[in-house]
């Protein structure tokens, strides 16, 4: 009899497995339908020996010292500040849009934040209420930059126009009036020094944790005796799509290795105007690995397939609320993570959510004092 059956060996499931086993002495079984741990953060060495990310680029960044400290027990870190260039009008320009982007595109030579801000304000279009992903960008940088950097990329990535997506989607990408060209502004920006999978191995390496891979919950739920359940897969799937399917956006990854040391100047190049892929990742920039060859991933998005992104739109939030009500009414089942709580969360947010779930579990189920 397991105290806990945990469905999913990604951040949500693995962080909780470790806490339950090490802090409460609970006996935990973690299953995953995939043949590996680490969920979407899974990385591996490819045929050439280059460390790559099976499910697209994963860069760890957070402002939470608690989250950073927690993971630091399971990995050493490599400092890495992510930089992204967008292929726009035949040039490679910094995204987030910053002073360099503006100077290059408009033939300006602004050197101060004030000049750049004043110029952006001449481009910005007033929007009464910022509701959509189009509103966010147009109200800040105007329609021309929106069309060049955001509209095409978003249509490729989400299969809908930015005007049909919540503001939260494009609001992930700031606009800067200085020349800071980092993709993220967070206090902690690192890559796990030996990779994500190694970090997960260390997290799950506990005598009270058993891991079973290539195992689908639907096939085993009746056969594995367990007291309580943590589910980190899609919440609508858990309830057999009772209220209909929650839309998730899927991706296709094309991994290639080139017989030359470098392909592009930064870790990720975005393609908002041309190509059928959204972005190209070159892993050696992220990992610091030295190798005579280089490995890349081309990302194309798709409506069908493995669920990767919840789609932030008002009607989807309403449908999720109905599933959330079912989830909240459960006594012995906890729903955690990006798919189970239908939130467009980064890794650090999922770790934070898992740690706060652990605190709620401790309140609900205090461990009896020993003896
Ligand atoms: P997952 O990692 O999806 O884990 C859920 C696991 O549950 C999966 O392994 C799945 O196989 C398993 N599962 C589901 N259903 C079942 C079932 N029925 N039976 C058995 N197993 C099941 N975040 C960042 O912070 N920085 C980034 O740079 C970043 N880049 C990203 C790039 C891409 C392309 C994607 C898709 C996401 C990115 N993220 C990034 C987000 C990050 O992947 C997630 O926040 C994190 O992996 C979510 O962890 P999770 O445990 O909730 O879900
Ligand atoms: N986006 C865009 N152009 C870009 C980068 C981002 O239009 O060059 C929009 C797009 O809608 C994307 C969203 O901003 O889905 C969030 O970007 P982010 O890089 O955070 O996406 P993720 O890494 O989560 O796929």
UniProtKB/TrEMBL annotation:
Q: Keywords for this entry?
A: FAD, Flavoprotein, Isomerase
- What are the required cofactors? FAD
UDP-galactopyranose mutase C-terminal domain location is: 149-344
Keyword Isomerase appears in the UniProt entry: yes
Q: Name one GO cellular component term.
A: cytosol
Which Gene Ontology molecular-function terms are recorded? flavin adenine dinucleotide binding; UDP-galactopyranose mutase activity
Record's superkingdom?
A: Bacteria
What InterPro entries does the record point to?
UDP-GALP_mutase (IPR004379), UDP-GalPyranose_mutase_C (IPR015899)
**SUPFAM superfamilies named in the record:** FAD-linked reductases, C-terminal domain, Nucleotide-binding domain
Question: Do you know which PANTHER family this protein is assigned to?
Answer: UDP-GALACTOPYRANOSE MUTASE
What family is this? Belongs to the UDP-galactopyranose/dTDP-fucopyranose mutase family.
User: Could you identify this protein by its name?
Assistant: UDP-galactopyranose mutase
């Amino acid at each position: 009899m397991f105290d806990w059956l945990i469905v999913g060996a990604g951040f949500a499931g693995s962080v909780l497995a470790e806490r339950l086993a090490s802090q409460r002495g609970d006996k935990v079984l973690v299953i995953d339908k995939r043949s590996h741990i680490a969920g979407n953060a899974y990385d591996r060495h490819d045929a050439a020996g280059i460390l790559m990310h099976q499910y697209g680029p994963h860069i760890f960044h957070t402002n939470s010292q608690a989250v950073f400290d927690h993971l630091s027990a399971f990995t050493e870190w490599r400092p890495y500040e992510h930089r992204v260039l967008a292929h726009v009008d035949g040039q490679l320009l910094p995204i987030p849009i910053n002073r360099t982007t503006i100077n290059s595109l408009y033939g300006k030579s602004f050197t101060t934040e004030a000049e750049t801000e004043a110029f952006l304000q001449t481009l910005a279009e007033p929007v009464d209420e910022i509701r959509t992903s189009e509103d966010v960008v147009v109200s800040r940088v105007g329609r021309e930059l929106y069309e060049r950097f955001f509209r095409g990329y978003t249509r490729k990535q989400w299969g809908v126009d930015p005007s049909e997506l919540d503001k939260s989607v494009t609001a992930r990408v700031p606009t800067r009036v200085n020349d800071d060209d980092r993709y993220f502004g967070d206090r902690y920006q690192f890559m796990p020094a030996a990779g994500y999978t190694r970090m997960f191995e260390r997290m799950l390496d506990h005598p009270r944790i058993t891991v079973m891979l290539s195992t689908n919950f639907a096939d085993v739920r009746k056969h594995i005796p367990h007291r309580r359940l943590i589910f980190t897969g899609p919440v609508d799937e858990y309830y057999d799509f009772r209220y209909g399917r929650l839309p998730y956006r899927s991706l296709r990854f094309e991994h290639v290795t080139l017989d030359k040391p470098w392909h592009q100047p930064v870790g990720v190049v975005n393609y908002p105007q041309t190509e059928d892929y959204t972005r190209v990742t070159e892993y050696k920039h992220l990992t610091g690995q030295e190798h005579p060859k280089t490995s890349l991933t081309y990302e194309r998005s798709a409506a069908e397939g493995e669920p990767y992104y919840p789609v932030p739109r008002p009607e989807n939030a309403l449908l999720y609320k109905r599933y959330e009500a079912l989830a909240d009414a459960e006594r012995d089942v906890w729903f955690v993570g990006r798919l189970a709580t239908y939130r467009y969360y980064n890794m650090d947010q999922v770790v934070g959510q898992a740690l706060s779930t652990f605190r709620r579990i401790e309140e609900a189920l205090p461990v009896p004092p020993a003896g």
